[in-house]
């Protein structure tokens, strides 16, 4: 189960056997390299705030798989998860190994099953990897949303940005509208070319938003989640909602939009933890590739946040040559590198510290890294924790209360 096997035949067979090919209407698939989770969270919050019971499927999780499948922002009871797993395994576990569902496929079918059992009236599915063969592409969606596409998973999707963009673009379907955030010129051209070939109407969020506002729409542009990129994610989610509204009876109410923008929360995306319990202010961000670190640096600059220190870790299958200079530039202070418990993919912290250079410190694990920063003067600036979602998972395992929004954030 815990492997990757590209192709949609297995999951389509399971969805058909359970009558789950078409999720609740409207259903949106969110595809891209970074900020998929934030954009999906905004959109799901718009549906929920407008009165629709809404399912949200995201990945990865930090402490429990139940974080991946939410209804109106909340995890579902363990009993429902057991029932969902039993239902899905009943149509897949007795098949030959080549026809059994992978872990991500299993969770995707479970999400569709749980959304049906919860009487959801809208659904948002975040793609896992790529687009053409991602498990979420086996479902019949009513709109495809593209967040910024950059270099990541090159060993799987292809060595160039064009390869990655083509794979993600191939999630588009005939007559199913697609909307995109701002993209590199090359990516925009590939999206437009694929949309033309497939017969999918393609929109760009910036243009749609400008036209809507010219006709009197009042959309919020300052979400509670900090960082300039979150304003872009908010605009993409608003545009998706706007495009779906006429065909699905959705009400575009500026007050509901503003309320949803304030309520939307997802942990580990430029999450600010106020100074407390001996810790200085912390910023937790899952930036785990070059584009993510660039976006993080811009967010820090826009909010005038100057990290006094950085806790950083990354996996050895990442683009270290591209990531490490970006990580070094995040602070003038020390960088602390903890070991991660990720068999087969974790870097030796001493080796990573040596590559970063500049007096970088290595410590055995995340607990030791948190002890290093505990007791720092609250007035000396924040400490940034970034580089890997596995690192954040280790932080949340020690401090599960940080998985929830802080009242002051």
List the SSEs and their pairings.
Elements: H1 9-17, E1 27-31, H2 36-49, E2 54-57, E3 69-71, E4 74-75, H3 78-89, H4 103-117, E5 122-126, E6 143-146, H5 154-157, H6 161-169, E7 178-180, H7 185-198, E8 202-204, H8 205-214, H9 228-248, H10 254-263, E9 271-273, E10 282-284, H11 290-302, E11 309-312, H12 320-328, E12 335-338, H13 349-356, E13 361-363, H14 366-373, E14 383-386, H15 389-398
Parallel strand pairs: 1-5, 1-6, 2-5, 6-7, 7-8, 10-14, 11-12, 11-14, 12-13
Antiparallel strand pairs: 2-3, 3-4, 9-10
Helix pairs in contact: 1-4, 2-9, 2-10, 3-4, 6-7, 8-9, 11-12
Give a written overview of the molecule:
The chain is α/β, with parallel strands linked by helices and about 400 residues long. The chain has two domains: about 10-265, 3-Layer(aba) Sandwich (UDP-N-acetylmuramoyl-L-alanine:D-glutamate ligase), CATH 3.40.1190.10; about 270-405, Mur ligase, C-terminal domain (Protein-Tyrosine Phosphatase, Chain A, Alpha-Beta Complex). It is built from 15 helices and 14 strands. It has helices spanning about 10-15, 35-50, 80-90, 105-115, 155, 160-170, 185-200, 205-215, 230-250, 255-265, 290-300, 320-330, 350-355, 365-375, 390-400; strands at about 25-30, 55, 70, 75, 120-125, 145, 180, 200-205, 270-275, 280-285, 310, 335-340, 360-365, 385. It has an eight-stranded mixed beta sheet, with helices on both faces. Strand 3 and strand 4 form a beta hairpin. Helix 1 (about 10-15) packs parallel to helix 4 (about 105-115). The model has no long low-confidence stretch (mean pLDDT about 95).
